[in-house]
Sequence to fold (486 residues):
Amino acid sequence: MTLDQLILQVPYLEIVGKTDREITALVSDSRQTGPATLYVAVQGTLADGHDYINAAADKGAEAIVCEKLPGEINADVTYILVQDSAKALGKLAANFYGNPSEKLSLIGITGTNGKTSVTTMLFDIFKNLGFKSVLISTVEYRIADKILPSTHTTPDVITLNKLLSQAVDAGCEYAFMEVSSHGIHQRRTEGLNFKVAGFTNISHDHLDYHHTFSEYLKTKKQFFDNLSPDAVAITNLDDKNGSVMLQNTTAKKKSYALKTMADYHGKVIEADFNGMLMNFQGKEFWTTFSGKFNAYNLLLAYAVAVECGFDTEDVLKAISTLSRVKGRFETLKSDGGIFFVIDYAHTPDALDNILESINEIRTKNERLITVFGCGGDRDHEKRPEMGKIATRKSTLAIITSDNPRTEKPEDIIKEIEAGVEPQNYSKYTSIPDRRGAIKMAIKFAEPKDIILVAGKGHENYQEINGERVHFDDKETVLELARMMSK
Fold:
């Protein structure tokens, strides 16, 4: 592709150099620069790409897109001056990969909790309906039947367009992706054409990055503000900030709810650990998913599928055959009769939701033991809140390590303990070693008791001092339960 073709519809202020150059690679990381490369200098959270313009030129970059020209111009390089490099990168990436988001129906799901569950549900629903799709989620990327490892909840805009282009080549017609607040703020979705956008919920999370809840809320809302008039925006009316998402969008507005009147209304009729009997829009069906939070996830997935033009009966049939998402309310039962729930809940709201769901199902004759922790180098404010929730809603809470990263597990645990109310002091203990904490829970449990292991879900590692050490909650539970039942 020539530079002329690549910069079509990219607003620029000035071009220094010729534009008939051949471009074979597009990068925003100067270390990946080579001959026939277009390097885009973007202001990042940790570094400014403009500081590496000369390094990119020295490595053979044919052209450089930037917001300010370097003091020294290299005669062998073409410089394209733009007002906003991140915005330009979105359009450049789309052009480079043939505008793939316009060749399939792209659905984005945002919110604090439920993004992975909803996108995975949608991928499986559309597969059951007979369509090839691409899934871009925290757990994995899937292009039809091909599975690729996931690197970010929302990848950078170059990787996104590359994945979508591969999906188009593979015959996919739909794309389902998680849209994180980091991804929105860092403009990773810039230039993508979304057909449907869905909002799950919003609660306390990522304040280490956004600093205030107000900024976090604004960032989520920005995703809906940028939708085209041809798109559909679907929000959760039961969330107190759900209607905020639709305030300034020009997209077609739709809503869903379990508690209030909405365009898509659902109801949980019966629920146990094996699943739920539900009613959507007056039609009953059974699902193997458990928990009210999953009722919301399923209702949003249903709404998206119907807005994409599918028959309601066909969608409900597809939903009724779904399997649970890995690490999301995943249930196991030991030979000794102990019931385990493995879940990714790592925010106050998610932990509250899953504990509430378990308490709604259990008869109260069984004890509920919760093993959980909080990640290091992340939002400190949610730690005491999670300590309060876990000890309020469990028979016993065992506070342990999650991904401590560069922090000491003991320091994180102290911050969690600070939220425990005096009347619940006797309802918790702390064991920094996660394996030891799970072992203690099993040792304490009796037949029919329920053990919730929360925080890591699908993750099969712990991050400790910059290293990833293998650790899988499900694997550990199965191993210890077998060993301790002998």
